[in-house]
Amino acid sequence: MAQDRRPAGRSERRVPGERKPREERWAQLLEVATQVFYEKGYEGASLQDIADRLGMLKGSLYYYIQSKEDLLFEVISEVHREGYAVVRTAAATGGDPLERLERTIRAHVEHACRNLVPTAVFLHELESLPAARRDAILGAGHAYQGVFRDLVAEAQRDGLARPDVDPRVAGLSILGSTNWVYRWFRPDGPSTPEEIGVQLAAMAVHGVATADALAARVAAVGA
Amino acid sequence: MAQDRRPAGRSERRVPGERKPREERWAQLLEVATQVFYEKGYEGASLQDIADRLGMLKGSLYYYIQSKEDLLFEVISEVHREGYAVVRTAAATGGDPLERLERTIRAHVEHACRNLVPTAVFLHELESLPAARRDAILGAGHAYQGVFRDLVAEAQRDGLARPDVDPRVAGLSILGSTNWVYRWFRPDGPSTPEEIGVQLAAMAVHGVATADALAARVAAVGA
DNA sequence: GGGCACCTACCGAACGTATGGTGGTCGGCG
DNA sequence: CGCCGACCACCATACGTTCGGTAGGTGCCC
Asked: Where is this region: Disordered (chains A, B) (predicted)?
C-alpha cells in the first residue's frame, strides 16, 4: 500500500500511542473486531479499520494475532461458548420438559438481545470460516440445535407434546424464530428482551404442546 | 494486475469464446452471479470469478453492468419480487385468517426450499447494499413481514388467535422460523419441502390460535 | 449485389488503490 | 539491561473499473 495511515500531519516523529498491558488490549481488540465485523462483514472489514479504532498501526496487530482469520475465529468462538453455556444451563435445571423448553427459549432470547452485535457476527460470519474451524466451534453434532430438539422429544415422550410434531423440525423452527430476533430487536423499540422472550416461548410451547398439557398449565397457574 | 486469467494454456491467440444474444447472456449472468455470491459472499466474490464461469474477461462484464453493486442489486431484487409475489398471492386467497396463515407459510417455505441459493443470497447479502437500495427493494414498510403480522392480527380480531399474542412479534417469529429453513434444508435430507411447510405451518397456527379455534379446526376436518 | 455504415458482444491491457502480511527497529518501564 | 508493546517501511497480490480496439453480423442504398 502507499503507506499506512497516519493520525495526521507530516512524518514528524510519531507520538508513541498508549501502551497498555497485554490482557487489556486483547479484550479491547476482540471488542473492536466484533464491532467492525458487524458493521462491514468479515470480508468487507480491513485490519486497517480495526487498527485505526485501536489507535495503532495495522502492522502492530500482528503482535496479538497470527492472521485475520484467527481473529474472526477467536471472536466467534467466544460468542458461541457464552451462548451455548446460557442455553445448556437453562435446559438442565428442573421442571417438566415444557417448563424447561420455555425457560431455555427465554434465556436464549434475552441473551441474544443483550448481546446483539456479537450474536449478529456469529450468525453472519460463521460461514466465513473454513469448514474445519466452523466444526471445531459448533461441535460435531451441532449441539446447539440439539438442545431444543431434545426438549421437544422429551416432552413428546411424556405425552406433553403432540405426537405429530417432528422434534427435529420443531427444534429448528424454534432456533429460527429466536435466532431471527437479532435482525429486528432494537433496545429502544417497543418491546423489552423479557417481553420478547415470553412471547416467543409462549408461541413455541403452544406450537408443540398437546391441548391437555396446555390446559394443565393454565390450571397450575390459576391454582 | 498481472494479466486477466485465461481459460488455459499459453498466450496463443485466444479462442474467441461464445457469442450469445444479449438477453440470454443477461439471464446467465444473473444466474452465475447468484451462485458465486452464494458461495463466497458479495465481498468475497470477485468479478473475475463470475467472468471466468461465463467464459469471458472481467472487463467484458461492464458491457452488461455499471458496477458490481448493481449486479447484487439486480440479483436481490429479482429474488425478493418473486418471493413476495408468492406470499401475497397465498395470503390473499380465501378462507378464514388461520387457514390463510397456514397456506401462506406453506407457500413461503416451499418456495424457499425450491430456491435455496437465491434465498440464501437474499437473506445474507441484503445488508451489503446501501440503505437506500435496500429500502427500494423491501418497500418502505417492510411489507414482507407485514403480511404475517396482519394475518395474525386479523385472526385475533375474529377471536381465532389468543388475545395475549403480540401480532408483531408473532409475525416476526413466523418469519424467523421460515427464513431459517434455507440454513438446514437439504434436497436429499429426510424431509420434503411440503412436509416441512406443513410442520412449520402447524406449529405457527397452534402457536397463536385459541383452544376453541383449534378444536373447531379438528372438528371440521373430522366432519 | 456489392460496398458502406453501424451495431453487438466481447477482448486485452492497463491504472490506481487497498489489502493481508513481514521484518527490522526502538523508546520506555521494571 | 532486557523485554514489552508498538512503530515504520515495504512486499506481492488482488481488486473494481476504464478504455481503445475488433471480428462478425445486419441492413440499407446504389
From this structure: 1-21
